[in-house]
Amino acid sequence: MTSTLILPGLNGSDDGHWQRFWLKDDKESRLVEQDDWKSPKVEAWTDRLEEVLVQEGPAYIVAHSLGCLLAAKCADRPSARLIKGALLVAPCDLSTTERLHPGAIHFGRMPTRTLPFPTITVGSLNDIYMPLESLSLYSRLWKTQVRNLGPAGHINIESGFGRWTGGYELLSLLKMKAKARRNYELPPAQNAEALAEQAIKSGMSH
Fold first, then answer.
1. Residue 173, CA atoms < 13 Å, CB-side half-sphere
2. How far from the centroid of its chain's Cα atoms is residue 180's Cα?
3. What's the 3-state SS for 59-99?
C-alpha cells in the first residue's frame, strides 16, 4: 500500500531531482502524475491529487515548489482528512513564480488557511521563488513548523540537491509528529469514553 505521495511542481521533477531518488528508494511511494506539467491548472491538479488519495487511502505527502501549494489548497476540502502529514519543500510564492514564468501558472491565489494536517516546511535563505519574508508570512498563516536550510536555493537539481538524505530524516520526524498528534487529539466521543472508564476504575478502587 502506498504510504507516501510525491508532488512535484512546475515541469515535474526531472531525473536527478531528489524526488526521483525518493521514488526509487521508497517502494511505498507513488508519484502523483499530472496531465500537464508545463501549464499547471489548479482545478485539474487538485482533482488528480484527490483522485489518488481516494484510491490509495490515507498517505503522507512529500511536495516540492508548486506541489506544496497543491497540498495546501486541500486544506478546506474533504480530501484533507486523507492527508496524514505533509513535508513541504521549497514552497513557491505565486506572484513571484508567475513573474518568472509568465503565462504558465494558473493556480489562483496563494493558500492562506491553517493547514489541518501536520506539516514541516523546508525553506532557504536565497530561494528565488520564495522571498524570505513571504516564507515567514505563509508559515505563520499555515501554522507550520519551518526548517531553514540556509543558502540552499530552490532545493532542487540546480542548487545541488540530488539524493537528499536529509529529506528522509525530516519525513521520519513528520511521522513522529503526526503520531503524537493522533495520540493527543482523541475524538470527543472516544475521549469521553476514556474519561468515563477512568472514573469507573477510580470509583472501584476506593
1. 13
2. 18
3. EEEEEECHHHHHHHHHHHCHHHHHEEEEEEECCCCHHHHHH
86 near 119, Cβ under 8 Å? yes
Full-model pTM:
0.87
What are the residues whose beta carbons fall under 8 Å from the beta carbon of 69, sequence distance 6 or more? 91, 92, 94, 107, 110, 111
Q: Supply the DSSP symbol for 110.
A: P
Q: How many residues can be counted in the chain? A: 206
pLDDT by residue for the chain (206 residues), tens only, comes to: 569 999 999 999 999 999 999 999 999 999 999 999 999 999 999 999 999 999 999 999 999 999 999 999 999 999 999 999 999 999 999 999 999 999 999 999 999 999 999 999 999 999 999 999 999 999 999 999 999 999 999 999 999 999 999 999 999 999 999 998 877 554 444 444 443 344 434 343 33
CB contact at 8 A, 37 and 8: yes
CA-CA distance, 115 to 139, in Å (whole number)? Answer: 10
Which amino acid is it at 124? S
Biggest distance spanned by C-alpha atoms of the chain: 73
